[in-house]
Design goal:
The protein contains 28 helices and 30 strands. It folds into four domains: 114 residues, Helicase, Ruva Protein, domain 3, CATH 1.10.8.60; 160 residues, Rossmann fold (3-Layer(aba) Sandwich), CATH 3.40.50; 151 residues, Four Helix Bundle (Hemerythrin (Met), subunit A), CATH 1.20.120; 232 residues, Ribosomal Protein S5, domain 2 (2-Layer Sandwich), CATH 3.30.230. The protein is α/β, with parallel strands linked by helices and 800 residues long. The longest helix is centred in the first third of the chain and has 58 residues. The protein is elongated, with a radius of gyration of 47 Å. Helix 19 crosses helix 20 and helix 23 packs across helix 24. The two termini are 31 Å apart. A seven-stranded mixed beta sheet has the order 23-24-22-21-26-29-30.
């Protein structure tokens, strides 16, 4: 028979003697992270690899310090790395819809922007000064006078030529006309119509000659006008160059190491010289006229003619130290890539290169971007934007309107910026597997996986680090200290959180919650130090806030609405144990399992499955029971058995195979007609060989049954059967441990179904003799006899 566990085996206690301090005020705060050596090695290695594709996915459960460690470790390394370059967008004089991206060393981007702002002001003042100067007006007037004289001379030649053929030249706004002269005076159309035909013929003949000769003179006049305009432009260019040339050269000399800046300044110079009139002509009269015609529109703001000569600085590292580390919890498409903003003018959307706004990727360029996988995958187009930058190694600011196919306004296509960013994505293993499954290039983009564990070994070193973690909490939150008993209580609670005696939890956010609430309870009591009593009160109060559903179930058990027997013996009936997980709170709940057996061919029928309330794992457990029965009893004749098993009063469904051994005991009781003790509850998975396998939630299951027995009154015989492989998973409450110590409650570890048979039914399971027969007075013997009888009935024989 299985031996029950001693009370000392039910939890791994932590005692003040394990530490050499009295309060956390005597120790140093924790630096770094605890119990994640594998993840830390992977993460630190990933940071050091600078090749393409070595981005990092930090996986693991929430609350293990993934984001905190990733940020602190990255910032520590980034502080030693070179500062990336500044980026500006400027006007593209060759293609205005494609602004140019200029790159500068740290701080030079802001300097260039300031220099260009200063240059723009100089352009306005210097150009207005030289073009309103008397010297310019004098040169311009002399040039115009010279051309006017030459034009007048050509017009005079035309008049003389026309007079020779008896024509008079008339100049109007529409052009030049030749009127015939008859009898010394010019005539009109009516008078011309009354002339004799021979006179008309002479006039027509002379007109053709005049037209030909006048055409040659007009060509000379047009060439003269072109030359006049060209010389005026040359004069303006010369004067404009005199005004701005040396300023342009100064900037080119200052930025002589930036070839693209020199080319840009040359283009800017030519554009200014081609549009000099913008700087000194006044168009206010035209605008006032428009406003008077359309008063409802109001006065349109004057256009800034110098806008295209300004600089849009989108990345400024003038005050940066080391490489940038950008952490985002809202990585929308626009936040990542940046965007081009629009203004509305009289119902029309307008934009320009100065409305280009950089995104998170621009800020992180040359450094690190830390994002949450859930955020990236839940926001539209965020993953597509991120993977495109990783793949192409450039930041291309396509408008989100383009991405959605909803472009209704003029768009800009800024020149892409080369990207050198290490992306650190933080999330659960679920998102890692999801991305690996649905994005065939994900493994190529994220070649490093830093896997954070939810538990760590309960070694002396880690216990001391946990104490240092508490000290760090005290300093960060500026709270009162914890004494050594409180530290011991936290260590025990940490083991309880992972349900392992030799492990500690790495979910430090949950531990921090307990610390915060314990401090609050201590302050309410006006205590000067946090003790284990405050930790215990915190845990108790937290459970009380969350155990409403558990209390409702307890009331139904007390009122026998849910029927569970904790005394006596019943055939085909057993107490199974389940865990109900409410998210932030889990508790054990006993459940009655029954089995009925009779002659038939249907085998074991799982009523839960038939009612579609059974999960796949539970269905598998039932099939394993069929395998055990066949292996044990059907070697000489086939099973002629119909059996129905059921979780009574189960209305929410069930899954898991932790009740498979429980169901098997119930079936064997029904077949052998030997009653099962109702004061013992059972949990454990069974395989086809009858071996008992480990299950989860063993601590909650034991405590759930203990609480029920305690309410009804402990008899001293009550207890729970658990798999022997779950012994190290026991982290029971002190109350349960004390009851076991006093012999009021019992916990039996078993390794095989036959050990449980003897405990539950009080009769040995039985071993085969040399003839392969089970003893008559054994459970196997009783079952074999019943199954043989069923087989006989199925064959039409009345066997005893």
């Amino acid at each position: 028979m299985a031996q029950e566990l001693k009370y000392s085996q039910l939890k791994n206690g932590c005692f003040p003697e394990d530490f050499s301090f009295n309060t956390t005020g005597e120790i140093s705060p924790l630096e770094g992270i605890i119990g994640q050596e594998r993840a830390v090695r992977a993460f630190d290695f990933g940071l050091m690899v600078k090749m393409k594709g070595y981005n990092i996915y930090v996986a693991g459960p929430s609350g293990t310090g993934k984001t905190t460690y990733a940020r602190s470790s990255t910032e520590k390394l980034a502080a030693k790395e070179p500062i990336p370059r500044d980026w500006c967008y400027v006007y593209n004089f060759q293609n205005p819809r494609n602004p140019l991206a200029l790159r500068f060393e740290k701080g030079m981007g802001r300097q260039f922007k300031e220099d260009m702002n200063e240059l723009v002001q100089l352009l306005k003042t210097e150009i207005q000064k030289v073009f309103r100067a008397e010297d310019y007006e004098k040169q311009k007037n002399e040039l115009l006078r010279s051309f006017d004289e030459k034009r007048s001379s050509l017009m005079e030649d035309m008049s003389k030529m026309a007079a020779e053929y008896e024509f008079q030249v008339k100049t109007t706004n529409s052009g030049i006309y030749f009127m015939p002269i008859v009898n010394g005076s010019a005539i009109g159309e009516e008078e011309y119509d009354n002339l004799p035909e021979d006179v008309k013929n002479v006039i027509e003949k002379n007109s053709q000659v005049v037209q030909e000769k006048a055409g040659a003179i007009m060509r000379d006049i047009r060439e003269l006008d072109k030359a006049s305009k060209k010389q005026l432009e040359q004069l303006d260019y010369k004067v404009g160059m005199f005004a701005i040339g040396h300023h342009i050269i100064q900037i080119q000399e200052k930025y002589q190491d930036y070839k693209r800046v020199i080319d840009y300044m040359n283009d800017l110079k030519e554009d200014v010289l081609e549009n000099l009139s913008q700087f000194y002509e006044d168009d206010e009269e035209g605008e006032e006229g428009l406003s008077s015609l359309l008063p409802m529109l109001g006065k349109k703001p004057a256009e800034d003619v110098t806008l295209k000569y300004k600089v849009n600085l989108i990345v400024d590292h003038s005050k940066s130290e080391g490489a940038p580390v950008v952490v985002s919890f809202n990585p929308t498409y626009s936040n990542l890539i940046g965007e081009v903003e629009y203004d509305s003018e009289f119902g029309n959307l307008t934009t320009d290169f100065m409305k280009i706004k950089g995104g998170l990727l621009h800020k992180a360029n040359g450094g690190y971007l830390i994002v949450q996988a859930q955020d990236v995958l839940s926001l539209p187009q965020a993953w597509e934007a991120l993977r495109r930058v990783i793949k192409t190694k450039e930041i291309n600011m396509d408008s989100s309107r383009d991405q959605l196919g909803a472009t209704v306004a003029p768009t800009l296509k800024p020149e892409p910026i080369p990207a050198d960013i290490k992306v650190i994505m933080i999330g659960s293993n679920y998102y890692y597997e999801l991305l690996s499954e649905y994005d065939e290039e994900f493994d190529k983009f994220f070649k490093i996986k830093a896997d954070f564990d939810y538990e760590m070994p309960r070694s002396n070193e880690n216990m001391w680090k946990l104490a240092s973690f508490i000290k760090r909490f005290v300093e960060q939150e500026e709270t009162i200290d914890f004494d050594v008993s409180a530290v011991c209580a936290i260590v025990e609670q940490s083991s309880r959180m992972v349900e392992r005696q030799n492990k500690l939890s790495t979910r430090f956010n949950q531990l921090a919650e307990i610390l915060s609430e314990a401090v609050t309870w201590a302050k309410m009591e006006e205590a000067k130090i946090v003790t284990s009593a405050h930790i215990s009160k915190t845990i108790y109060e937290k459970e009380q806030r969350l155990k409403l559903y558990e209390e409702k179930l307890g009331e139904m058990l007390d009122e026998n609405v849910i029927m569970i027997a904790t005394q006596g013996s019943v055939v085909g009936q057993i107490n199974g144990l389940a865990v109900l997980d409410m998210g932030s709170y889990a508790f054990g709940n006993p459940s009655r399992i029954t089995a009925t057996t009779y002659v038939g061919k249907s085998g074991i029928i799982n009523i839960e499955k038939e009612a579609r309330m059974s999960g796949h794992t539970h269905d598998k457990g039932v099939q394993i029971i069929s395998g055990f029965l066949g292996q044990t009893y059907a070697q000489e004749f086939p099973l002629s058995l119909s059996c129905r098993i059921c979780f009574e009063q189960n209305y929410n469904g069930i899954d898991g195979d932790s009740a498979s051994s429980t169901e098997l005991y119930c079936i064997l009781s029904s077949l052998s007609e030997v009653p099962i003790r109702q004061d013992l509850a059972v949990t454990g998975s069974v395989n086809q060989k009858g071996e008992i396998q480990a299950i989860g939630g063993v601590t909650h299951k034991i405590e759930g049954y203990y609480d029920l027995c305690k309410k009804r009154g402990l008899t001293g015989t009550q207890g729970v059967l658990i798999p022997v492989s779950n012994i190290n998973d026991l982290v029971l409450k002190d109350e349960v441990v004390e009851s076991v110590k006093n012999g009021e409650f019992h916990i039996y570890p078993i390794s095989h179904i036959e050990e449980g048979i003897e405990l539950l039914m009080g009769i040995p399971a039985g071993e085969k003799d040399s003839n392969g027969k089970y003893p008559e007075e054994s459970i196997h013997g009783y079952v074999m006899r019943k199954l043989r009888k069923f087989h006989g009935f199925s064959q039409g024989k009345d066997e005893d």
